[in-house]
Amino acid sequence: MRNGVRHLLGAGAGLLATPLIAAGLLYFASGRALAAWIAVAALGASMVVVGVLSGSRISPIGSLVPGLVLAVVAGLAYVPGVRVAGLLPAEYAEPYARLAGTWALPLACVLLAASVFPARWRGATRPEPPAEPEDEAVPEPPPLPKRIPSRY
Length: 152
Description:
The protein starts with a helix and ends in a 31-residue tail after the last helix. Helices cover about 60% and strands about 0% of the residues. The longest helix is centred in the N-terminal third of the chain and has 28 residues, at about 5-30. The chain has about 150 residues and is an all-alpha fold.
């Protein structure tokens, strides 16, 4: 697969994974789950998505996009005078504050660190085709011995 296609698919995966990660973390942080195991399952699914984006051969853009979004979420929580909660519906203000204060920064660091490695930006190396074997000269057979005439 060419690098351009791989990076395009990685960007699509990152755009798709960003709301999935945020929804899983917000569901866990909201405390409104029907059962505790459902909230833990949502958190686990979010972590699986983070792991796939961080450790696979998907383009690093796939982990860069959600990493930048979570870094902005965490950064805005620590900037004085910025009220992001006013932009959200009232029922999401408290879970957003929990998300920004707990999970957003560590996950952003994991996702951004996974995007830094230069080997992930390069495509897979294609094996070179084997070289054609050279025609080796077939050695001449040794000369036959001279025939000795028979007496009979």
